[in-house]
Amino acid sequence: AIKVTSANNTKKSKKKKKKSTEEYLKQMGSPPAETLIIQVQNETSIALALTIPTVLFPSTNNSLSDADDNPNADLAHFYQSQEEEEKNQSHLEPILSLYNLAHGLSFTSSSPNSSSSSKSKHQKNVLVILLQSGRFAAAIFNKDECIKHTTFSRYTVRKGQGGSQSALDNTKGKAKSVGSQLRRAGEAQLRNDVYLTLMDWKEDIDDCALYFLSLSKMLQKGFWEDVNRAYQDGHSGGGGGGKNVNNTSQQRLKKGGNQVRSIPLDVGRPCFESCCAVYELIMSCSLLQVDLSMRSPAAHVSGTDMVSPHDEMLHPIKETNYENNNAENVGTTKEVVKREYVGAPLTALHQAAIDGNVELLTAVLSSCNGNHDDIDTVAGPKLMTPLHYAAESSSPNAAKCVSLLLIQGKANPSMLDSHDRPPCYLASNDSVRNAFRLARSELGEEMWNWSEGAKVGAPLTNDDIKNKREKAAEKKRRQRMRQKERKKLEQEKAAEEERKAKEQQEKKEQEESARRARAGLKPKSASAKNSVVCDFCQKDCKGKRKSQLFSRLDFLYCSSECMRKHQRELMAAAATARMSNGN
After folding, report:
1. How distant, in Å, are the alpha carbons of 82, 179, 523, 547, 577 from that of 555?
2. Distance separating alpha carbons of residues 362 and 114, to the nearest angstrom
3. Could you tell me the sign of the dihedral formed by the alpha carbons of 413, 32, 127, 190, in that order?
4. What's the pLDDT tens digit per position in 192-220?
5. Distance of alpha carbon 342 from alpha carbon 290, whole angstroms
6. Residue 255: which residues within 8 A CB-CB, separation 6 or more?
7. Which of 77, 152, 284, 499 could make an S-S bridge to 193, C-beta 3.0–4.6 Å?
8. Hey, is 545 helix, strand or coil?
């Protein structure tokens, strides 16, 4: 009993731990967002800015909610017409998008005599669908509540080589193995799961205001075919037997639809937790503080100006989201802390790190006389430091640039870019990663938070690198020696097998000659060994097979006359032997 328990415990310990929603939030990072200044405090040079995920903005000029559904559609169209007439007010477009989004989500189609319960029934929802690598996850959200969700997992991906079976069939043809047949059946089951889910949720899907999708490239075509088939079957009586519905103008979930948005995040493995993380990231806006003292003097600030991509750095503050529609949750807050930066122009250090220009980088660092205030300045679209650009560079001098920035410039390896990545995470090859480890060994552990913040490996010295290279060279030398020894053994084995085969052939020929001598036949000539000949007269039987010749006592004859002659000779030799034995 003790052994069984220990075995079960060992098996459970090897089971992969399931990720939580918080872990998925950390993995996905922040979605692309657009920032607007909404309030300026002149006495403190601090402004409040609002960041809105760009995925919430419609791709066309159509509003999020339909004109028939939105009671304030006329007001929205009025602002849009004003925007077209006054091009200098283009900053209203994000605010209009957010305005239409709010009405699209909160609209309730109810008559004046309807009750409050019927109003909440028509509340607009948000659908999140994740489909990749044989896994399907879908969830429908209403505010902070998930009202429906489902997940499916099918065997469609080759475990060892990776890639879906359909992709392999398209490139190399259909395989006939049992595993390939199972994966094809898994792909068919996965499509059926998606279709049945869309059919079961057809009413809730039609009531959704937004559809966020993350589909792998190989599964997109099949997914949209299932969506159209489910819509046609759902609006023709179900079951696929009704009349085909070709009019898709009222279909909300369709390819290229205004309500359909692609998720701009690495969602990881599709599951319920990843759906919740996607919904929380995309449907959240952040309130930030802008330091206007970092803006250029020529920059003009107004209450609704867009933040220039090269103007200032944004600092994180807490956003409080009050639940207004639930009496039990009144007063509760939801705090979201995000960091969003607006890019700045590249400095000389940034450009030298990008180009891998060691001479320029050394000159810039030497001109500072030990005062490197701008060594950790963030710039560019991803708000990276010179150390980020040096680590990411594909230049052969990337490792030297990293060493100069860390050792001579005292750059901070724990600085994060807009995607919360330290410079070491962007290292393009092993030599760059070794440069970080060498700097850690030279600068010491007290200089920076190397492990947790910078994600740099263990300290490394030049002696360690030298020993590692020597070990690698020794390992390669031993490998070549083993290959030579293996080749030599194979040659000796082949020579031994050839010798044994030759001896067996000679022995076989000797036995054949002795047998022919006992039968009173002449030895076979060298030319007759590889052809069909008569064993008695040595005549070459061209064009005939052995099965077409006469045979007696394991000998072959070209004619019955040769066979009878050989028989008489054998009988005469036997009689002579008997007479000699009698005397």
Report:
1. 111, 54, 13, 12, 22
2. 75
3. negative
4. 999 999 998 888 888 888 889 999 888 88
5. 10
6. 224, 227
7. 152
8. coil
